[in-house]
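task queued by scheduler; priority normal; single chain, no ligands, no partner chains; default sampling; output format set to structure tokens
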Amino acid sequence: MAYQFAGVNLIRIIEHVERQRFNADDPFEFSDFNFVKLYRLRKQDVQNLEEMLQPFLPVHPRSHAISNRTKILSALRFFASGSYQLDVGRNHTVTLSQPSISRTLHEVLGAFNTPEILNRYVHFPNTIQELTNTRERFFAKYQVPGIIGCIDCTHIGIVCPIENEHIYISIGNITIPSMYR
């Protein structure tokens, strides 16, 4: 009789098991200051970004799929922190594991890199006139002559290879490829 009772309870437990997800605070309830501090964008900008990326993010049929808003917020947190996915995976506002963060970043960056979005926001001057105008605007704003733009990046130290040493430069003990010289 006890075995039958235990078996019935076990079946009920197995049938009732539901995936539990930690209910994080809604980041949109944070103060504007704290929201910008975490994500480097205003709430309205994130909502606009969500609308813009919506058609390009994959749709997952699972009932517990990660929402597009969570995907975008986790990617923004990764970009804002300047850290690796593990930092974002430990963040209390985005309750995803490190592998989920990695997949999410892949999806969000894929959406950013679609031609519809990329061509809308990334433009390089195609004519001499555009190049001249861009150079003049940059000079008017920053007083640096002959420049058409800047790229923000992080230098990662590498060991200078023995072959083709001339294509690498050293800046303050950091060796980087100098393909854009």
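post-processing summary
- The first helix runs from residue 2 to 16.
- The CA atoms of residues 136 and 145 lie 8 Å apart.
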